[in-house]
Amino acid sequence: MEEKSRIQEFKNSIKIVNRRRDLFPLWNKILIGIFFLWGVSGIINSIFGLFQVNPDISLYGLTSTQVSSPLGIFILLMFITKAFIAYSLWFEKSCEYLKN
Predict the structure, then answer these.
(1) Rounded to an integer, what distance in angstroms lies between the CA atom of residue 63 and that of residue 47?
(2) CB 59 within 8 Å of CB 78
């Protein structure tokens, strides 16, 4: 009887984390927010490129003044990829095609 109550007491004292984002430290949550903003800016810059407005974009030392150039498209895809990964981490999405 006493053993059962100790087990029950232990089970009650454990905090069960239901979401993955509760396990993230603060710095990780901040970076996810920054990557969300980068993704939004990548989409906005893509729209600017459609209207021939060419903002300066730069990432990892790669710089482009034209969104429609191959380098500009690569940089925008990197922005959008970072946002997709941040979204997947935050909303607990996992890639089914990566599982074996």
Answers:
(1) 18
(2) yes
Confidence of residue 98 (pLDDT cuts 50, 70, 90): low
φ, ψ of residue 68 in degrees (nearest 5): -85, 0
Q: Which amino acid is at 17?
A: V
Tell me how far apart the alpha carbons of residues 76 and 35 are, in angstroms, rounded to a whole number.
Answer: 13
Sign, CA dihedral 57-63-67-70, equals: negative
* Rg for the chain, CA atoms, rounded: 22
Task: Tell me what the mean pLDDT of segment 49-77 comes to.
Answer: 85
Q: Which residue has the tokens 């074996």?
A: 100
Q: Return the SS3 of 40.
A: helix
Which residues have C-beta within 8 Å of that of residue 79, sequence separation ≥ 6?
A: 38, 39, 41, 42, 45, 59
